[in-house]
Amino acid sequence: MSVVTPGILPRERLLDLIDSPTLAPITLVTAPAGYGKSTLVHQWAARHAPHPCGWYQIRTEHNTLATFLLHLWHAIDDAASPLPPPDPLTIDRVLDRLHACTDQTVLILDDYHLIENGLIHQVTEQLVRNLPPATHLFLLSRQLPDIALARLRAYGQVRQLAQDDLAFTFAEVKQVFAGFPLDDALLAQLTQKSEGWIAGLQLMLMSVNLTTSPAAEQLDRLIATMPENRLLNEYIVEEVLDALPDDLRRFVLDTVVLDVLDPHLCDAVLQLDTSDRFLERLENAIVFVGRPGGVGRPLSYHGLFAECVQRLRLRSGIQPSATELRLRASRWYRSRGQSVEATKYALAAGAWGEASETMSEFLHFDRAQGDVWDTIYWVSKLPTSTMKKDVRLLQSYITAILATGRIDEARTLIESFLHIPGFEPTAIQESWHANQRAFVAYVDGDGDEALYQSYRALSRLPWEDASSRLLAWTGIYRELSDRGERELAREALRQAESDHIRQGGASIYWHFLLAPAIANDAAIRGELARAEALNQQFIRTNPSRMQISSLAFDIKLLSIYVEQNRLDLARDKVDGILTDVDESTRIIL
Fold first, then answer.
1. Cα distance from N-terminal residue to C-terminal residue, the chain
2. Does this model's pTM top 0.70?
3. How many domains is the chain partitioned into structurally?
4. Same-domain status, 103 and 17
5. Which pLDDT tens digit goes with each residue over 156-179?
6. Residue where a domain stops, chosen among 158, 192, 224
7. What's the angle, vertex CA 565, arms to CA 556 and CA 520, rounded to 5?
8. What stretches of 225-367 show up as alpha helix (H) in DSSP?
9. pLDDT for 75-108, tens place per residue?
């Protein structure tokens, strides 16, 4: 198998950022492993060749002050005329030497995160505070250096490039892999999944033979199984997790199941009270964390990093389990009244009963208020056996999938509704069941059954249940209208309109089915002016979530304008319809 060896991309936008408008006295380059910090600064040095730079590649064993100062002195040798180190070698001697340099001097301290000695941090702070005007210092690190830079930042003496800056854009990824048979759609998905982490991309693509065009199935599998990639996981363990102190490493392993790193949430999940301090250390360590919502928003982990670590955690059998941690998160959110977040974590934990309970706290069961797409999105995540334990949830789901045309799935659930073990339906629940059966029968073309079930529903409904009566009269109107029994159909329509008014005028059935029927009836009678006025009225009063219903009214208006030969209005209406169709498509997608 051929190992992918992509080209080194000149990062012109970042090189310009370093140099513009002029090179800052201190350039801080901070990002997790694999974001190209060293490569970028090597490119900057090459851009300014033959001007020499002093490059100090820090090692773990350099954590004594004498060793650090000696290597720093030798780095200056590379940028200026070599001199033997004085004895004793102190930071003051280093500064004296830098002040004696007449030409511009550039020092690069790479992998500064390996420094753990507080004395070295102190001398580095002394160095940055007293840099000569002709000296420029680059600090490359996986974490924020433990030195005070606030005053220098305030005076514009520090320029920082961080993870968001170093992340590769789609255009850059496309350039890096220009010589390989990868199409734009795949590269866009890879860029999004990796969040521009170039080392992660390269490691993932090592598992694919790129000497020939990979099969679509192979590439789809690559994207789906990114978090399982062996090379990627080894890199994360060796370069990221193993480099952390034990307590911070454990904090990462336990909080990686959380979408956001709110300190109070972390405390509740980990059952401690020091998460704020851990999060401060984590942010300083730059361990694949960021603030996607901007300054002041909670931290969160890089998506692909989090997925990889979660899989590593699962394989290691670490306790408490991810399931237990997610359940604690769900209960914390629920205690704060945040039912949607509570549901997300309960579902992730497979706690179907708790997920069902929290869904019931935010999903609308009133058909006049509910959003069918919300209901389908959430309830479909539950096993059918759990749905059947919450009749209101099941009813809401059946109504939603019927409204969106998923008839076969609805038919199966409707047939089993009255046979749920231990369930004793009320008269209203029986009438609801009859209404749903009527709709399915109508779709199946069984008009007699549809009419029978609609009348059966009415016979069990109290006068006060206007919403359910409206649905039953809708079924009766629909069937009688199809049979050509117009007078009886109009009477059913009047009854439905009365129920619509009694329930407050906010039913999805009204806006989808009956409102167009009233306007159609006027048009059939030749009352085009009234039909036009009715369609315009329905558009004005249509709930914002019922945009598709508004399109139906617009199309009716278009037909009326054409019939009346009002072509200018027809043209305008066509433009409006096309715009609304584009918007509806965007929302659905």
1. 38
2. no
3. 4
4. yes
5. 899 999 988 999 999 988 888 777
6. 224
7. 25
8. 230-235, 246-255, 263-270, 275-285, 303-316, 322-335, 339-348, 352-362
9. 999 888 889 999 999 999 999 999 998 888 999 9
